[in-house]
Fold these 4 entries.
Entry 1:
Amino acid sequence: MITILNYHLDLPVCIHNFDQLVLWLVILTSIGTITTGAYLASFSKGFLYAVKTYEHKNGFKRFSLTDLQLPFSKSHFKKLLLGMSSKTNSIIHKALKADALFMPFAYGSLLLLFFYFWLRFTSQPDPNPVILSMLLNCWYFPLIAYVMDIFENNFTASLLKKLEILKQEKTTNYEDRKLNESDKSQLISRFRIKILIASGLKWLTAILSIGIILTALCILLV
């Protein structure tokens, strides 16, 4: 039960089983997460980049959005970006817009789960002090992950847009081509660091959030 003070009537408004209401909100946001996640996944079949085969012919290889947003290998990241066609670039931009629909549901679910378990533990006569402290002090982790995901997508979209401009530049001689390749390499290196920082913070806070939620669930079930 949760009590909200009504200042106009000077009477408390009591909501019984408020944790169940929050749980229903979790279920609704989870449905939204699954639905928008399926929509986001539908774009993955168009994620292709050009590669050289053993016969020295141009082939195409699939990649995922994670390959693009967790660029641990600089050489693979550069090969992936330079091998993309304009069509693939356009598909990725659409996927990033779909990800913008997915994020509020995904991170909203985590935030609501923090609230739900906090309500469950505070209603107990002798709650676990460690998990209660974690729920109270780390509830904002999903919000940090959400913000970092937005930064990550913005960096990715900006990189693809600027790189596409450089790809379409016409080079008439060796010096121009060399300068163009240098500009591409510098652009990729600069944005790779930005994407890695945003992505690293996103995954760190998201994994910690899930870990705390699973720990709270296990304690309740024991």
Entry 2:
Amino acid sequence: MHLLKLSLACATLAAAGLYADGARAESYDAPINIATLACPAGSSGFNNARFVIFPFFGGTPANWRLTIWCNAGGSGRRGHFEPGSGGVGSVWPYAGGAFGVGWPASPGYGNQYQLLDIDGDGDLDVFQLSETAANTWSVFYSRTQ
């Protein structure tokens, strides 16, 4: 009888251990503000800005590019940012942009989050768009631990 109870207890613990790794929550570093774009009046509020991060091969060397696109009464502003010498985990310098580019942004742009393995370590890092002041939009980067 004691052997049966011990066997059942061991089997239960082993089964719990098999599923424990799949049940753990992801853990992220504190968010870093990597880009901020001041937009024209009228671009405050949810759904008035979008962003996208993508590989950019137009420069030498090839790099990542972040574009923030905000609405201002339908006229729109777009700003581009690229990682500088500090890498992807520091503030990305402004790389140009345009006013009067129209709205809405193209469908590839997100309005809140983008998951991307930008540091090449095999996990998805989080990028989040937030309004940090009236008519000012910032993208924050959180690296998966």
Entry 3:
Amino acid sequence: MAKNSFSKEFYRDFELLLLKQHQLINMIDRETNIDFNAKSLWHGTSTIWMDSICQSGLGAINIAEEYNLIELLGFLYAEILRLDINAPELESRRQTISAIITGKPLYHDNIALNYKYDGAYVSMSPLTAAKYACSIPSGSELLDYCLFLLYILRKSNIEIPNELNRINIMSMLPL
């Protein structure tokens, strides 16, 4: 099967998204009036999850489980492999995606990086929480990985099984 390749528009759109995220992070870095009191815990996320947090509390709903996101990620990644899609921007994320799917740690400089999605994560730094909120548009690193793979697959007319599409992920893809 011939490898699929992407148009210049794909790379332009993807680069623009990364540029916007980078600009937001730089803007936060310039903020100097943040009080680090080591008594507060901060959580950075998207307003997508605000209703859920207000209704049930932070971390009360595990979105990875609620929406089968690890299984969805595995399905989307398998589709990319099955269709033999050539997406150079995937190369830098391939090991991380595999670690998430398999549940095994990824080693970097002899340090185990665990990609676990079993609760809400907090920081003692409001800056770290703000960076996370700005760099993860969906408010979930795992959901962002799913959206990234779906963006690569968007022209492949795949059908996502209903049990893996509880979040209606196609509606979350940017046009």
Entry 4:
Amino acid sequence: MQDAPAAVASRPGGGERCDLVGRHCGSGDTLIRDVRLREPRVDDVIAVPVTGAYCPSLANNHNGARRPPVVFCRDGEAREVVRRETYEDLLRRDVGVGAGVGVAVG
């Protein structure tokens, strides 16, 4: 996905040029090149109005990544409509793995 707007959710507005990359579908995916983000830091929430093929309906766990929450925003208010996936969610369907079997999750 290219040429889409994005912003640090708690600090909207322009700033330094950044590439939004990471473990999405593959380990080296680039979501947006040369987007301007204000003072980006580790653990920031990045607001992206569209994600192309990285939308919730196509989300998967083939690389062990947890799915992010879905948040609707309107008139300055944010409402979480799908919660962030947990590591426990990832292991829930596995047989013989998880709580009580000696696997630490967290």
